[in-house]
Amino acid sequence: MAEVILKNIKKVYPHQEPAKKKKGSEEKKTNLQITDEGVLAVQEFSLNIADKEFIVLVGPSGCGKSTTLRMVAGLEEISGGELYIDGKLMNDVAPKDRDIAMVFQNYALYPHMTVRENMAFPLKLKKYPKEEIRKRVDQAAEVLGITEYLDRKPKALSGGQRQRVAIGRAIVREPKVLLMDEPLSNLDAKLRNQMRAEIIKLRQRIDTTFIYVTHDQTEAMTLGDRIVIMKDGVIQQIGTPQEVFDHPTNLFVAGFIGTPQMNFFDAELVKEDGRYAVVLENARVELSEAKQANLARKQVQPGPITLGVRPEHISLAGDASQAVRGTVDVAEMMGSAVHLHVDACGRDTIVILQTMDLQGAGHPIPATGSALPFTFGGNVAHVFDRETGRNLEV
């Protein structure tokens, strides 16, 4: 298998002649950097991917994640930097000679071929012996649970089955690196959940390095050993799912990772007798010992901040005089919990209310327009610089 190293990888798309604007059309906004060379789609992308590691590139549409994947595959030319696979420089190596396989979003199956023929096709191109081809296809089909479909054509399969075939066609080659570009985005919610589990099982069965692209942070959190979060062609943070959830490096990562997303408030960071606390309306919350140590080590000064608190970390307060005051706007029943949209500090704030406690006792759902005072613990408060959005603890 293979280690993949990307050193200061850059992708620049040259300037194009501006097309005539159609009447009534709107210009597409982009935050990508524009230089004399062209549009910088990916900037200074550096990442060491260990052998057999599962890396997920995640971010909103247009952030450069698929472009990065296509540069690894050789489908996009690298404008700058160096790409190494298994210790070999790959910048100018043809895609067929990189010993990688790619699974696309739209499956890219040959409609006139059976499942067996689709899976065998890349091996036939490399002139493998017939018996070796049959053995590899049968083994891959068994791993993916599609043995009974080998004689069918793609049109006779469901979306999830077609995706399994596309993955099977990739793994029969036993590539050093398996690239997956939003492979589940065309599936419905139930199938996506099933296929996520299938990919986790597949990862346990085959020894290869995975690079997976998605805009779905749930996929990123459940699949990746490490997550690379991108925005406007720039890496925002690299870390394990737990690291980026617990310690987001900036406001973008904090808001992107987590469902529902983190709540943000304008607040004050105060320091009295050497101890830090955050003040939001009537609530004054002293920060945890770990946060005290981090802020003191970085010599963070008191002042205006952006406070981040995840919905699941907000607690309803019995004493409204020492809490943030809110008013219920909308209650969304989610089954085991209710997501309350609360107008607090002039912002739409989400509070999660469990419908049942551990003893099975039900909790009444607050009526629209009712007061909902709440607070939060000092261990779950995230402190961000109001100007730069940087996490002041990280």
Automatic annotation (TrEMBL):
<keyword id="KW-0813">Transport</keyword>
<dbReference type="GO" id="GO:0008643">
    <property type="term" value="P:carbohydrate transport"/>
</dbReference>
<dbReference type="InterPro" id="IPR003439">
    <property type="entry name" value="ABC_transporter-like_ATP-bd"/>
</dbReference>
<dbReference type="GO" id="GO:0140359">
    <property type="term" value="F:ABC-type transporter activity"/>
</dbReference>
<dbReference type="InterPro" id="IPR015855">
    <property type="entry name" value="ABC_transpr_MalK-like"/>
</dbReference>
<dbReference type="InterPro" id="IPR040582">
    <property type="entry name" value="OB_MalK-like"/>
</dbReference>
<dbReference type="GO" id="GO:0055052">
    <property type="term" value="C:ATP-binding cassette (ABC) transporter complex, substrate-binding subunit-containing"/>
</dbReference>
<dbReference type="GO" id="GO:0016887">
    <property type="term" value="F:ATP hydrolysis activity"/>
</dbReference>
<dbReference type="GO" id="GO:0005524">
    <property type="term" value="F:ATP binding"/>
</dbReference>
<dbReference type="InterPro" id="IPR017871">
    <property type="entry name" value="ABC_transporter-like_CS"/>
</dbReference>
<dbReference type="Pfam" id="PF00005">
    <property type="entry name" value="ABC_tran"/>
</dbReference>
<dbReference type="Pfam" id="PF17912">
    <property type="entry name" value="OB_MalK"/>
</dbReference>
<dbReference type="InterPro" id="IPR003593">
    <property type="entry name" value="AAA+_ATPase"/>
</dbReference>
<dbReference type="InterPro" id="IPR012340">
    <property type="entry name" value="NA-bd_OB-fold"/>
</dbReference>
<dbReference type="InterPro" id="IPR027417">
    <property type="entry name" value="P-loop_NTPase"/>
</dbReference>
<feature type="domain" description="ABC transporter">
    <location>
        <begin position="27"/>
        <end position="257"/>
    </location>
</feature>
<dbReference type="InterPro" id="IPR008995">
    <property type="entry name" value="Mo/tungstate-bd_C_term_dom"/>
</dbReference>
<protein>
    <submittedName>
        <fullName>sn-glycerol-3-phosphate ABC transporter ATP-binding protein UgpC</fullName>
    </submittedName>
</protein>
<dbReference type="InterPro" id="IPR047641">
    <property type="entry name" value="ABC_transpr_MalK/UgpC-like"/>
</dbReference>
<keyword id="KW-0547">Nucleotide-binding</keyword>
<keyword id="KW-0067">ATP-binding</keyword>
